[in-house]
Amino acid sequence: MQNLKSQGFTLIELMIVVAIIGVLAAIAYPSYQEQIARSRRADAKTVLMETVQFMERYYTQMGSYQAAALPFAEAPKDGAPKFYDISYAAGQPTSSTFEVRAVPKGAMVSDPCGSFTVTHTGVRNVAGASRSSSECWGR
Predict the structure, then answer these.
(1) What are the residues whose beta carbons fall under 8 Å from the beta carbon of 68, sequence distance 6 or more?
(2) pTM to 2 decimals?
């Protein structure tokens, strides 16, 4: 009598592997999505802080913020797609004050940090957010 060795995997073994992969993916995907959102938020905050530096240089040269044009209209500055619109708050800038904001768009519209804002005094805040300003700005 010959002893036949089975080769390959049984259906049960394959189903167990598929289930394990599914569980790992279910755990990893939300974490991956949060890291992507953090990266996009960091791009927006970077552009805002560069805009604040630009505004301060403009004020030093001109003595007023009023006629300053924004150096960037979207974040990130380079690459595509864009996830934030950069703009002044309503009624801004004045001769002695400004407030710039990064308003989410596209895939970031439902972001829990909402819009980021920075004033001429360096006050950083969020608007329309379900998280606190310190959580979103990382302070």
Answers:
(1) 54, 55, 58, 59, 62, 93, 98
(2) 0.81
